[in-house]
Specification:
- With about 450 residues, the chain is mostly beta strands.
- It contains no helices and 37 strands.
- The radius of gyration is 23 Å and the shape is globular.
Length: about 450
């Protein structure tokens, strides 16, 4: 979603110097909302205050079936959830004010035990991975948010396919399906205009037999992909050729500490930090999040931490700011919050948690970005630097300018910074001018 949010902090500049800063309110620290898919007959919601690092209360967003995995459209107007026990996928409208969900319609997933759902980046299609029988189904999203009739249903070959998740590349052109039963990551050419999946020229990449590839994620540059294997407790790193949709393995690492933990273990979720510097994977059995640093040159992983969690961390999410890891403990029935060290990626238990029965999926998003604080520094007689404080590296800031200030002031876009840029250098050549910082919410 790309929109612009104007902020309340205004700086007045004249040829005679820097004027006062005008503010109607103290800077907002930022707020996130997240949805929680569960095995307890409801989709829950809660919030995360970025200023205090604390959860809001949890509440039922909608009661329905067995809504394990959920996914939002890019504009966050609609949410989709697989009903794992019922073999369906449901469409919901999102109340933007209170987050409450309203069922729009449901369709058969055209398979059994649907395990994963994703919305493509165009916001026009929903793709469901059916664990039972190993198939993938594409549904168009109608203008009212409902799911249309399936436009594709691809069945994986025998013996024993178990499709576990679908991951799309940056171009929205290639779709990859982790098949736990076949020990393959299968590659498809995806057409978002018509909602079709066609087997790629290189149809799959195989992993070591018995590994059980479960989930896959790309790094922020989509140069590499990482696959977590459920049965072998390993992560496989792949170089990615975006031209033809081919993955080439370069490393396999354990999510466990060799010789330290010898009990039964299966892995579940994998995520790359928004900075691209760290990779995280969940261990069920050891009950931990394995943390790895990423070598910027070749993408190789080095273990740095095993962070204990609640029981059976089925799923977790790195919040969009990269400051927190939110972990769903399916067995312990809780959501726990861990702070992320931006220098080494390590997690620290904040002690904050929510009680939610059988949580299995977390989808966070920014509800209100932190409101930047504008600071000024003269760099010459008629030149200055405007700095953005209370900022986020993942946002793009914009500078607006006006020659007068009133309720009807028309603000002109003066400059759009790079993503994460927090300073603007200006030459002041007008008798009086005013500047305002905006946020291009391209998260």
């Amino acid at each position: 979603m790309i929109t612009s949010i104007r902020l309340l902090f205004v700086v007045a500049i004249s040829l005679f110097g820097i004027g006062v800063r005008v503010s109607a309110d103290a800077p907002a620290p930022g707020l996130e909302r997240f949805y929680i898919g569960t095995y307890s007959g409801a989709i829950y919601q809660s919030t995360l205050n970025l200023g205090t690092g604390s959860f809001g209360v949890s509440s039922v967003a909608v009661s329905i079936g067995d809504p394990s995995f959920v996914a939002l459209t890019p504009n966050r107007n609609f949410l989709y959830a697989v009903n794992e026990g019922g073999g369906t996928v449901g469409a919901f409208s999102v109340n933007p004010t209170n987050g409450v969900l309203k069922l729009l319609n449901q369709r058969s997933s055209n398979g059994s035990s649907p395990a994963h759902v994703v919305v493509d980046s165009s916001g026009r299609n929903v793709i469901v991975a059916n664990y039972g029988g190993g198939s993938v189904t594409v549904f168009p999203i109608l203008t009212n948010g409902q799911l249309g009739a399936a436009t594709a249903n691809v069945k994986h070959p025998p013996p024993g396919p178990l499709a576990h998740c679908t991951t799309l590349d940056a171009s929205n052109h290639f779709a990859f399906v982790c098949d736990k039963g076949l020990d393959q990551v299968r590659s498809y050419i995806f057409d978002p205009d018509v909602g079709t999946l066609v087997t790629n020229k290189t149809p799959f990449v195989s992993v070591v037999r018995g590994s059980g590839p479960r989930h896959m994620t790309f790094d922020p540059q989509f140069k590499r992909a990482y696959v977590i294997c459920e049965l072998s407790s390993t992560i496989i790193g792949f170089n990615y050729d975006a031209t033809n949709g081919v993955l080439t393995a370069f490393q396999t690492v354990s999510t466990l500490q060799p010789g330290v933990f010898t009990g039964a273990n299966t892995t579940a979720e994998i995520a790359v930090h928004p900075s691209g510097k760290f990779v995280y994977g969940s261990n069920r059995g050891k009950n931990s999040i394995a943390v790895f640093s990423v070598n910027a040159e070749d993408g190789k992983l080095t273990p740095v931490q095993q962070q204990p969690t609640g029981a059976t961390p089925r799923n977790f999410a790195i919040d969009p700011t990269g400051a927190y890891c939110i972990v769903a403990g399916q067995g312990s029935g809780d959501i726990r919050l861990y702070a992320i060290n931006p220098d080494n990626g390590q997690l620290t238990d904040t002690g904050k948690k929510l009680s939610v029965s059988s949580p299995v999926c977390i989808v966070p998003f920014i509800l209100q970005p932190p409101q930047p604080v504008v600071t000024t520094r003269a760099t010459g007689k008629n030149s200055l630097e405007l700095g953005v404080g209370n900022s986020l590296d993942l946002l793009t800031y914009q500078l607006y300018q006006a020659t007068s200030l009133s309720p009807s002031t028309s603000w002109n876009l003066l400059a759009t910074g790079r993503r994460g840029q927090t300073n603007f250098f200006l030459t002041n050549n007008l008798p009086t001018q005013y500047f305002q910082i905006g946020v291009l919410t391209n998260y």
